[in-house]
């Protein structure tokens, strides 16, 4: 019986360790619902990020322009690279600037209640919150 309990505890501890140290699943399309703790107002084209974890590519929309680039994830560490956008004028260029600033400052990601992700900077300040679409 002691061996059985020890085995169950060992498996439980390993599962807990793996879930805490593994990558958060970013795959798919995520609507940007807040920036800097403020809710994003609905626009003609709502801003979003779409992650492909196989190719480490990210595609999205700033609310004004399309963006594409790459990302790197190691556990909770998240960074973006080689981001490019189209260069059209849009109805809310301030929203675009906020989205791009958040992407440039991104350092970490964590899961949040309600099937959301929170992306923060190196100091732990919340930059943006994403909701799975």
From TrEMBL:
It holds the Pfam family META. PROSITE patterns: PROKAR_LIPOPROTEIN (PS51257). Gene3D superfamilies: 2.40.128.270. Residues 27-129 form the DUF306 domain. This is META domain-containing protein. The lineage of its organism: Bacteria, Pseudomonadati, Bacteroidota, Bacteroidia, Bacteroidales.
């Amino acid at each position: 019986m002691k061996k059985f309990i020890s085995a169950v505890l060992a498996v439980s501890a390993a599962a807990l360790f793996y879930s805490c140290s593994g990558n958060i699943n970013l795959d798919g399309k995520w609507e940007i619902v807040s920036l800097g703790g403020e809710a994003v107002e609905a626009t003609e084209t709502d801003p979003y990020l779409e992650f492909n974890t196989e190719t480490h590519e990210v595609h999205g929309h700033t609310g004004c322009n399309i963006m594409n680039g790459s990302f790197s994830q190691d556990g909770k560490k998240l960074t973006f690279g080689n981001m490019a956008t189209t260069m059209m004028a849009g109805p809310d260029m301030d929203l675009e600037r906020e989205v791009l600033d958040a992407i440039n400052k991104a350092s970490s990601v964590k899961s949040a209640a309600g099937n959301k992700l929170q992306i923060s900077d190196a100091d732990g300040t919340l930059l943006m919150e994403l909701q799975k679409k």
